Amino acid sequence: MSPSSNQASGPLARHDKEPPFEEPWHAQTLALAFNLIEQGRFDNSTWSNALGAALKEAEANGAPDNTETYYLAALEALETLLARTSDVDSCSVDERTEAWRRAYLRTPHGKPVELGE
Q1: Each residue of 19-59: pLDDT tens digit?
Q2: Which residues contact 52 (CB under 8 A, 6 or more apart)?
Q3: Is the pLDDT of residue 95 over 50?
Q4: Which of 45, 65, 75, 88 has a Cα-to-Cα distance from 81 of 20 to 30 A?
Q5: Element housing 95 (H / E)
Q6: 30: Cβ contacts below 8 Å, ≥ 6 apart
Q7: Which contacts qualify for 39-43: CB closer than 8 Å, 24 or more apart?
Q8: 95 or 89: which carries more pLDDT confidence?
């Protein structure tokens, strides 16, 4: 039996046949991690260990078992690995994050967010 075009499949498939991620950026976080693996920034095992550690920490902190928690754990793992393997310091990351936050807040609903330099 082949799955229908609207049926989710794979290890992250949800049982209710909805996409495994609530928002596009959830999937983009994993896509970025896999791209960095392909580029040799870190390997599958390193990624798996970092993601597993972030998920265990979330569970220990009482986070619910849902896609938002999985996304936040993936983001935490990605940020941790990038901090270890990148020349970019955390202050620069914090400054860029704040610039994006300000850009988001000043952007009218439905318009693309643009980072003004």
Answers
A1: 667 788 888 999 999 999 999 999 999 999 999 999 999 99
A2: none
A3: yes
A4: 65
A5: helix 90-106
A6: 74
A7: 41/81, 41/82, 41/85, 42/81, 42/85
A8: 95
